[in-house]
């Protein structure tokens, strides 16, 4: 087809131009953020807590969608945890960003109707601090 075929508002595909995601358990995420809670990843294959869950809406019920999760750095600093003050401290510049790794939701691809029918949970997502991990961990 043509390069612009199927484009809706703002140049986005008509299949995603009305898509929206609402974070589930938002109050728990907000409380963790307020307390400054951070997850320390010290071993390969640690599951994220709280689990990332969203309720999707505005998808084309008959279109196929692939959902994936990606992580990007918030800033260019390296942090260390200071146990004596129970806080995170900036400890210099971060390493150069590693090539991105994404986690594909195991139900992908699926129709929009399936994604919107229930809460989408990334509970199988596992994190690692090993840049050379080849087990599919992010």
From TrEMBL:
The question of whether Cell membrane is a record keyword is answered with: no
Start and end residues of each T-box domain: 23-138
Q: Does the keyword DNA-binding apply?
A: yes
**Cited SUPFAM superfamilies:** p53-like transcription factors (SSF49417)
Transmembrane portions of the chain: none
State the InterPro entries in the record: p53-like_TF_DNA-bd_sf, T-box_DNA-bd, T-box_sf, TF_T-box, TF_T-box_CS
What is the protein's name according to its record? TBX10 factor
Question: Record's Gene3D superfamilies?
Answer: Transcription factor, T-box
**One GO BP:** cell fate specification
Against PANTHER family, the record matches this protein to: T-BOX PROTEIN-RELATED, T-BOX TRANSCRIPTION FACTOR TBX10
Q: Which UniProt keywords apply?
A: DNA-binding, Nucleus, Transcription, Transcription regulation
Q: Which Pfam families match?
A: T-box
This entry carries the following GO cellular component terms, namely:
chromatin; nucleus
- Reading the lineage from the top rank, the first entry is Eukaryota
Gene it is expressed from = Tbx10
Question: In the record, which residues are listed under signal peptide?
Answer: none
From which source organism is this entry?
A: Nyctibius bracteatus
Q: Which GO terms describe its molecular function?
A: DNA-binding transcription factor activity, RNA polymerase II-specific; RNA polymerase II cis-regulatory region sequence-specific DNA binding
Q: Where in the cell is it found?
A: Nucleus
Main localization category? nucleus
């Amino acid at each position: 087809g043509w390069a612009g075929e199927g484009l809706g508002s703002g140049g986005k595909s008509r299949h995603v131009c009305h898509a929206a995601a609402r974070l589930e358990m938002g109050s728990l995420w907000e409380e963790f953020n307020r307390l400054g809670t951070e997850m320390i990843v010290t071993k390969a294959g640690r599951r994220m807590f709280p689990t990332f869950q969203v309720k999707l809406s505005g998808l084309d019920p008959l279109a196929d969608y692939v959902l994936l999760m990606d992580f990007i750095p918030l800033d260019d600093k390296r942090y260390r945890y200071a146990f004596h003050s129970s806080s995170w401290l900036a400890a210099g510049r971060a390493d150069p960003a590693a090539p991105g790794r994404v986690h594909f939701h195991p139900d992908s691809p699926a129709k929009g109707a399936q994604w919107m029918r229930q809460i989408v949970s990334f509970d199988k997502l596992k994190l690692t601090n090993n840049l050379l991990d080849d087990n599919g961990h992010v």
